[in-house]
Records
---
Amino acid sequence: MRYGVGILVFILIGAVSCGGGGGGGTGSGGPPGPVDPPAGSTRVTVVARDAFGSPVPGASITLLESKGTGILELNMVTDAHGRAEVVGGFEDVYAAMLTATDLFGISYEPRQPADDQIEFDVTLHPSSGLTPGIGRVTVTGGSADGRRLEFSARLYVVEGSASEGQDLEAWNIDAVGVLPCAADCVAGPAGFDAAYQGSTLNQDWVDPEPLPAPLALALLLDQGMSVALTDPMDRRLLAARYLQTRLGPDDQVALAAFAADDAGTGQAASLPEQPVTLFPTDNPGFTPDGRAYFPVIDSLATLSGGSSPLHAALAELIDFTATAAPPGNRGTVVALASSDVSDCGSPADCRAAQDALRAQSGAADVPVVVAGLSGPSAQADRRRLGPFAQFENGAVFWVQDARQVPTLFGRMPEIVAGRHGTVDVTIRLESPVTGAFAPGNMVVGTLQVVICPWDCTELLDVPFGLHIP
């Protein structure tokens, strides 16, 4: 990337629309077609579309132009048709970078239909802050007195946009630390707790290791009433649609949602089947045409209610994926869970449910990835969701803002297919309390990642929760 500052004088021409994708002209009510730029000038046209092919009006455009040894930046805004044009004495306009509400796109591939014309077609993708994840958590050692515990884990940092040029690996994980825990750290016998300090023993970047098989991805969406609090704008539904645009040509996808009548409040679930509804309800299965689910996904906006029986829904969907995934495709369940995982009560009940699911997932060879949506002001449910990171090839992603869900789902095919760069760490926890890390106890805490895209100032918390075998 070249950097610099300069001033550019230009003439802004009225934005020209294609009126729904055709050529310019006045026949369909659009503005007049373009005229030839003045001699010695170049016309730069930018067309902005979202991931579904719809125009993006009001997008802010930054054109990057080489000018000697520096860069000149020219700012514009797309019109109601997602277009903008400018004419000027440009030397080398080499990129167009666009931003809109929760969207970002960039293109370094201009077309040049004529010597005096440059065109950029830019796709804007959902954009948000970084999202942390943790997987493959395994207890690797400890001490006989239960005062020391060592475990390994794989860390993910999901970038804020899937746009061209936004490389995930550019978000360099510089260091991983462990935040000390003073209270509510270790669950064991009734009333038990123990403080601890932590340190990182090893940290290794893991290059992407793509799986040879295409995916059979079963998507499971929480439709319990708690989504009204954690996802009031139905971002999970945008995410479900966006995911369909990110699958590979040989990948297949299935769609399901979960909810159940809430015995505590009396509120009924709105889904046609409990605890999980598979779509289409008359003939559920995997399909290479994920866009065919768009009408069903949209209908879920009016079908929230009841409780969120995550464990029961996962049990059904693991079995479904194991039997219905096309031969040769790698079956994986990806679930979005809101803040109310309601189908296990006591810690012992939750552990039994999680242990059963872990055994089922391993036996069926169907990994489970859970995105836990806690909301911006809520604490991540480390006890109920953290242990999913102990599943074989499983992972948990921690989402504090529903706007992160479309970005995360857009990356999910890369994550489950092994195309996403990660960092493996080995962590040591030490406690002054004898028996703190005894078998059967549960440990919760937070890893802290130092992110170094430029100046190593960004800190990203990665919650964890693990059962000690």
---
Amino acid sequence: MAKEKFLLYMLAGIFSFQAVIFGAGLYFCTQSKNVTEVCPNIGQRYEQTFNVMVATTLALLTGTALSTKE
């Protein structure tokens, strides 16, 4: 399997896993009577995690593309 294809599959897996975890967390947070105390800044935390995932994957893809050109 090509490195690029493997990394894209990993990216899809990471996004899917994060979506499931975020959905479960959001569900349990909304079950609470006081959401702001139980789950403060949940959207901001998810956005930060998402940005790190994308940056890491793009860095790996860029590094793979550069190594194949040499």
---
Amino acid sequence: MNILLKFLPKDKRALLELAIRITSSLDTKQKRIDVSNYGIRILADGKVTPPEWATFGSKLGILTGKKN
């Protein structure tokens, strides 16, 4: 993967590295695919609503609700 990154422009490489780091904490390949697809879908129109951000964060495991 690192060899491929070297051929990308710096801005694209930074974005790809960020995406990899964001999804690296997910347990399975399918979870990473699902979260990535959801992120692409919510960003398609260039606008993300607070509920969409909350859903994205919860899918990533970084936002959780109250624990009783």
---
Amino acid sequence: MNTNVPNQTRPQTGRGLVALQVAQDAAVGTITLMQTLPPALRSYQDQAIRSTGSVVLNLAEGAGRRGRDRARFWQVAFGSAKEAQAAVQVVVRAGQVDKAAGEALLRILDRLAALTWGLSSTGR
């Protein structure tokens, strides 16, 4: 059995893979937390879920790119992570979700923003 994988299809390693895993955790956590919002706050629910999904997808697509193209996807991922943070912060501060769960998600989103910032800054 040939276990050699061409460079183009090798799984990404290092910080990019960690960021993708954290992004997936953030997306699942956001979906779970935001399900309980009342109808008046559905725009926050929708935006937070779409933002965390955008982080996941941009990190995954950026992993398959090189140079400035890669960095651009990771810059978009960083912006989406900050957007998700803002939406979650509003509903937590408004007391519309479980405070402990909201704060736990904000810690994940903070880590995600730091990871995506590092990726977008280095272009790696």
